[in-house]
Design goal:
alpha+beta, 2 helices, 8 strands, 27% strand
């Protein structure tokens, strides 16, 4: 279709430099080619701002997942992932303003209200030095006298 302001006119072909609109084409995404000529992929900047997203109501989790998938297809600078360690849905965008606009779009278009916060950071600890020795004690009341125990251990890092 040839588009001029609010008017559209169906056309069969277009010449070089022509700007047209295509309606109802399945599997057409940003950067896809319709003809025989293929263009190099468009380099998009890496999104840097991350937020954990949860729906305000429990019943909207499926709705939110579908809406975020749709936004990922529309906006190549937006990503979503489920963090395997913290079990959070993490959305990533170009800026806080970008993510705020997308939250408002979810509310307006998909009728899903989203709460966002900083994502959890999984805690990982690594032994950095040789332990000198460990002593632990444990008291446990039982039926009758209090039972006490202690243990000392030594281990080596390899």
């Amino acid at each position: 279709m040839h588009v001029q302001a609010a008017e559209t006119e169906p056309i069969d072909e277009v010449g070089p430099g022509g700007i047209v609109a295509v309606a109802k084409v399945e599997d057409l995404h940003t950067g896809a080619s319709l003809g025989e000529l293929t263009m190099p992929p468009i380099p998009f900047p890496t999104p840097m701002v991350r937020l954990a997203a949860t729906p305000k109501s429990r019943g909207d989790e499926g709705k939110l997942s579908g809406a975020l998938h749709k936004i990922c297809e529309e906006d190549s600078t937006f990503h979503r992932e489920l963090d395997a360690q913290t079990k959070e849905m993490v959305i990533t965008g170009m800026s806080e303003l970008h993510l705020q606009v997308l939250r408002e779009r979810l509310k307006r278009r998909d009728k899903v209200e989203v709460e966002t916060r900083e994502p959890k950071i999984p805690l990982r600890e690594t032994v950095q030095s040789q332990p000198r020795g460990c002593i632990g004690t444990r008291s446990r009341p039982a039926a009758g006298p209090v039972r006490r125990g202690s243990i000392s251990a030594c281990c080596r890092c390899r």
